[in-house]
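Entry 14. Structure prediction run on the chain below.
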Amino acid sequence: MIFRGLLMAATLVLLPALGMAAEFRLAPYKDKLFSNPKPFRTLYGGGLEMIEYSVEKDLRQRDEIVEKKARPEYVSLEPVAREYDLTLRDGAVKTSLVAVGNVEGAAKIVVLFLHGRGAGRRAGFDDWTFGGNFNRIKNLMVRNGGVYAAPSFADFRETGRDQVKGVMKAFAEKSPGVPIFIACASAAGALCTALVEDPVARPLLAGVLFLGSGVHDIEADARAFADATPPVPLFIAHGSKDQIVNWVRLELFFKALRAASPNYPVRFQLFVPGQHGTPMRMTDWRKIINWMLSLRQAG
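Output returned:
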């Protein structure tokens, strides 16, 4: 593999996650600005939380230009100096990605964002849209010795899966044992499920975040997660007024996963009355990733 012009080993040796300190957590960063209100209702023993999404507070008061530019207090452009356009070559397969942080090695954590249909790798790197929430994950990674990256991929099927898997392998080779989290927007949920099923990708996964994601086959997708050994922690965020992916399908998926594996590490936050893009604005990256890290280290 060639990654940012540096020679990478052609083979991957899977290593246990020993690269972090025992109690590694993401340190606070703008937590007060990005934290969500307490759920107004919980279901399934607290596994599903309903959280109020306020158009006035969470959209109009947070954005200087609604849906286009967050207010300055939500954004810090310090990570821009460590942002790179990269190319990964794995045999004949070429993948372009944008990344920020410790891309050359010694990363403590890696977060990948997979864009939805009709978007591209830059969708997850815009500092100003979605209330500055993508800027926050960039800052969290840079300030905690990690990497945040967003690849382009050809489709949401086998080719796209293999491209994303190649990116995962490249970062794992650069930083052996690093936990890799993947956030999947909309149609990219199919890629995340496929990566959970993949015997090479699965051991590298520390957690998956569904952000307005769809599920292709409720029972089959639930079984893919339930059969993962060890389990891959899953966070589901959805808007109750999503007109592209009905949230009820995600509830049915959640119930099917719980039925197949009652103790599966899965959380569901439903933003009421959020839309399709609301999870990318409202997901509290630090809280969710730290929850997943705690499960990994407890295991």
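Residues 1-21 have pLDDT under 50 and may be disordered.
Filed with the rest of this week's runs.
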